[in-house]
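INFO batch 0412 | record 1 of 1 | parsing
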Amino acid sequence: MSVGWGGLPLLPLRCVLDHLSTEDSLAALSTCRHWRSAVLLYEGRKDTLKLRVKHLEKNLFLTRLFRKYTRKLHIYIDSCGEELDNFMNYVLPQFFDTQKLQELVFIGPTYILQSPNTPVAKLNRIITESLMFKNMHCLQKLSLLGCEMGTVKNENGRYTHKNVEYYSRPLSFNSIPSPNDTVLSRCNAGMMTFFTLQQIVLDYDRMSTETLETLSELSQMSKLTLNIGLRRPLALPTIDWRRANRNLRVALNVISAPQKLFNELMDKVLIAELPLASLKVMFCKTLHADVLQRVVRLYKETLRELVWADAPYDSADMFHRIIKQQRDADMITMCNVNPLILLCWQCTHLQRLVIHGYWVWQYDLLGFVRLRKSLEELEISAIYNKQTRFSSAICSDNVVRVLARDTQKPLDTEFVQQVNLFTEFSWSPVSWEHLHPALRPRPSAEHRADYVLQEVNRTF
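INFO prediction complete | emitting tokens
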């Protein structure tokens, strides 16, 4: 006798439901009483739980259902003010009981909308820090994207919730704003020694030498990711990287930055003391040769990945294809060396190279893999096989953009095989149809946000 879906035993049915997305799991709850019992009896097993601040009732239900097994909590702050306060007061404290969070990510409106004109979300410091210290034995990653810790108006605010009152009792909070307390309160430095936190992601304008000194109290912290571009301060802060731990490695993400910001970037950010391990430039509409040359000059021993990604330029004017480089005449630029060739030659620990939105000659690509056999990932979408195709740009040593109307031509099979002779992995050209939507012509802000968050949250 065959058994239908409605008559399956609870445990096998729960194993099937375990493969559903969050939205599909909610739909399964409304199918019938038997399916609802299968979900509720064995509880939701979601490694990653994504919540949006606007939907309070939905968040309360999802939290009750999935909190026990959640390892990664991603919070999209799509509304500030009262709705954010309600989320912080009623939803977040429920995770005090789990003690299993490994990743805590807050994503503010700036990143969701990809706009610098949106307000900065302010988090409840007492609840957020108390939750972090509650998971101090397992929390490994903290991301504050387009948001910041709010000022503590009254330390007695912890007594609003019984969970917060119990778990934050050993913590102290300063009611006077200080650069030392940008991420974590400096007055809790004694407890930070036992923190398992390894990576922190935040906006560069929230960084300072005092903040760096506080983060240096974290004994296991080795990765710091800083984002520049979406939030544009009047001036980028100057940081004394000599105060950092010796094992600290920094990833720098430049997102939708204007051309004028690159000069300030080279003067104040890309300095010799910075322990740069990763550089990602996304949706800046230019490939800046001076930046690449400075990176090669200063970080040849530390750089491990480079991502330079843009969507095809939305223009039919051939004049917009060429990006003219205005560089100083020094020993390197006088030789007209391709900066990407120079990068692969000099950066001895380079493992990942991603180039989108710019044309690369196939024999330059072959030079990449011959010069740098340490590459583990190579992603280049626009490759041409005739050197004369962009002769005017090549002769003047300029960079060639991909335009929205350009088409991809297949590479010769023998050339692909030749590239694979020098790689430790199986390489093949990236098909434009399989690119992320943000890397195709005329991407939406939602697609750009998804790609940016994907790269920002990636471990380097």
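INFO post-check: The CA atoms of residues 388 and 425 lie 30 Å apart.
INFO record closed
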